[in-house]
Amino acid sequence: MLNAVLMQLRDTAVIMGVVALVGLLLQKKSAVDVFSGTVKTIVGFMIFNIGADAMSAQVTIFSNMFSTAFQVNGVVTQVEVATALALNSYGTEVALVMVFGFIMNLVFAKITPFKAVFLTGQHFLYFACVLALVFIALGAPAVVTVVLGGIILGICGAALPSLCQPFVNKLTGTDNIAIGHFNCIGYAFSGYVGKLFSKSAGTEKDEEPGRELPSFLKLFKDFVFSVALFMIVLFYIVTIACYATGHFGDQLATGQAFTSYFGNDLWFVWPFLAGLKFAAGMSVLIYGVRQFIAEITAAFVGISEKLIPDAVPAVDCPAIFPFAPNAVIIGFIGSFLGGLVAMALMVAFHSETIMIPAAGICFFSGGTCGVCGYAYGGWKGALLGSFLVGIVLCAGPLFLYPAFANLGIGGASFPNVDYNIVGSLIYGIGGLFS
After folding, report:
1. How far apart are CA 315 and CA 111, in angstroms?
2. Which tens digits make up the pLDDT trace of 105-143?
């Protein structure tokens, strides 16, 4: 039963719909408006998920091919895999931490100056996994795990988005939304790195063509084109590497060979189409974001006025991508390069565990770092901020991985900065008393 409830709570479209429904009811809207606003919110987020799924499918293929082509063996910084392993072994504890954490998020948003209400259900689940595993690794009783884990999760949900809010406000020009993605410490750090180059002002749409980007990047002003071109190049690199090293017939962990990805396409045509599929998924994602953000912001007025004064909805990080699309690409590049540097350092220092940067994390978390770094520092701030955070995204899980591996959660890790900083602090302090 708990697993069934947890699966429903993971459906962020349902959470968004409930929030829209409550907000519209509190505003005493007509039945037609309530139904329309609720449905549009859910449909918008479903469109968002369709785009995200299309992108994730291509990113997973890229990551598998990259690992095999370059003969890298190690732990993938893939939060979805680590979460699935945690749910299989400790589903009850994780479910209770998540539910109690969401309740505490509302409580802290009501009684403290931190007004973010965290609406990104899947990321709430990921952080609940980390906190539950940390307390379990410390040998804490179930009651302590749920109560302390839920309180910490609630505090983080309400407070951490405020760290990067100055950069969100700078980009959007409003204070209507916050970032509901537990990499807020990383985003804030990238934003302050960007301030080292603070001679730019305004968003990309306010700039003259080519003012911030070097001349050779002027073509990247077209968001879909820039995404497509970069992903096409990456897919050609890994495909040629697989072909050159004779790995086309290799079986992946799923039992699937690389050649099965190509279908009826020629191997040298497939990378071009794969890159375009990724860009198409991004286009769908952005459309969905615009729709559900418009609806949820309007509906959130009711909650803000009636239940939690000055509450701010914290939504998934792609919500700010349209405000600086070029910075997303720069952030992806910087974060991925940072991850490769971190991996090389692990190899050079003979680390027992080698973390492999996941392209998906580098895109979403790194891309958001790029946007926050761009807010004040232009493309230089976006690149340096995302590069530095990319190192932490890849190397950060090393601190908690041994403890999680002892619990049977191995082969994957939780990469985001907030997970590892907060989790490591709790584990370090708890270790003094365990």
Report:
1. 21
2. 888 998 999 988 887 777 888 899 999 999 999 988 989
Contacts of residue 345, Cβ cutoff 8 Å, sequence gap at least 6: 395
Q: Which residues contact 257 (CB under 8 A, 6 or more apart)?
A: 248, 249, 250, 251
Per the listing, tokens 């370090």 go with 428
> Half-sphere exposure (CA, 13 Å, Cβ side) for 196?
13
**R_g of the chain computed on alpha carbons:** 21
Task: Indicate the residue type of 352.
Answer: E
In 3-state terms the chain splits into helix, strand, coil percentages (rounded to 5) of 75, 5, 20
Strands 75-76 and 116-118: unpaired
Q: Which residue has the tokens 């974060």?
A: 335
pLDDT in tens, 316-340: 888 888 888 888 888 988 998 999 9
Please say whether the beta carbons of 351 and 398 come within 8 A: yes
Furthest-apart CA atoms within the chain: distance in Å: 65
Question: How far, in whole angstroms, is CA 377 from its chain's centroid?
Answer: 22
The DSSP element (H or E) to which 175 belongs, if any, is none
Rounded CA separation 152/128 (Å): 9
pTM for this model (two decimals):
0.72
> Is residue 39 exposed (0-12), middle (13-18) or buried (19+ Cβ within 10 Å)?
middle
The mean pLDDT value for 294-298 works out to 71
The Cα–Cα gap between 371 and 123 comes to: 20
What pLDDT digit, counting tens, does each position of 376-404 carry?
A: 988 899 999 999 999 999 999 999 988 88
Placement of tokens 């953000």 in the chain: 293
Residue-by-residue DSSP string for 60-102: HHHHHHHHHHTT--SEE--HHHHHHHHHHHHHHHHHHHHHHHH
Round to whole Å and give the CA distance between 80 and 56: 11
